[in-house]
Amino acid sequence: MNKTYKSDVVIIGSGAAGYTAGIYTARANMNPILIDGQQPGGQMTITTDVENYPGFKDIVQGPWLMEQMKKQAESVGTKIFNDTIVEVNFKKKPFQLNGDNGSVYIGKSVIIATGATARWLNLDSEEKFKGFGVSACATCDGFFFKNKTVAVIGGGNTAVEEALFLTKHAKKVFLIHRRNELRAEKILQKRLFKNPKVEIIWNSVVQEIKGNDNPKKVTGLKIKNIIKKKDQDIKLDGVFVAIGYDPSTNIFKNQIKLDGDGYIITKSNNTHTDISGIFAAGDVTDKIYRQAVTAAGMGCMAALDAEKFLAK
Ligand code: NAP
After folding, report:
1. pLDDT at residue number 1
2. Is the pLDDT of residue 226 over 60?
3. What distance in angstroms lies between residue 245's CA and the mean position of ligand 1's atoms?
4. Which residue from 178, 188, 221 has its CB within 8 A of the most atoms of ligand 1, so it is best to mutate?
């Protein structure tokens, strides 16, 4: 039989925003229910070294940090459910959320902290070789490219961090970027430029990922220099796509106001959405800062906003 769970607040998502919302709402006696989703712990679980989360002088690991946040949320009373919300009804109150496993969650308020997921190049050849040499997670798959040649696509922090991480395994790492300067932080750029295993290919976009069918594996890339308008073939074994993220808001379409890029719109100085009682925090609503620490801060804000809403 399907189970129904009721609470003052249901939190969707288990990244830094979701767990922080759990900590604050639990401490406010709101008996939060947190649904952890398809990637418990969120994007930080596919990061290695974290050097900029305040409170730690030494480098900490992303998965470890999220485990600590989870334990803290649980220890103060957040009930964490291993489920994924597949449908919501925000048209009537209390709000109803349906889980993939058949459970139904009823909340007087809801905090959406579903984060964002990796963006792909949308090439047919990329789709074909996903899992066969094409990946969006160097920390997950880098190990398989020991002494091989790989390419990272992108020019942001993620691309540079992935490229640096891959130098620990691969013998050569190309970083292919569509412009002639990187978007990544200067400190990361400095490390990248200094690394002898890295070769940067500027002003270039991927045309095709090449590979064999039997056994299915990547063998190279066809790229185009957009300034010189010239194609180039590169032989390599793996391609890591690191071109940013899209907000995870599919289930909220037609339920809540989203902007043109699919991010949840919140009021300018708080976490209220266009529906009273529904709040949003973290990368699902933030396309500017997108840091674990800003997501955690917004999780706290959403919890305080939800507490005030219920007190009314
Ligand atoms: P990002 O900053 O949005 O960078 C995406 C990169 O991919 C950009 O260089 C962009 O090129 C390129 N790109 C986008 N679409 C493309 C396409 N279709 N084809 C080719 N290239 C494409 O994304 P991110 O690096 O994933 O970072 C996301 C956020 O997380 C940022 O705020 C970042 O600071 C943060 N982050 C922080 C850390 C850290 O602090 N340690 C680590 C990882 C991420 P253009 O530059 O030309 O636009």
Report:
1. 56
2. yes
3. 8
4. 178
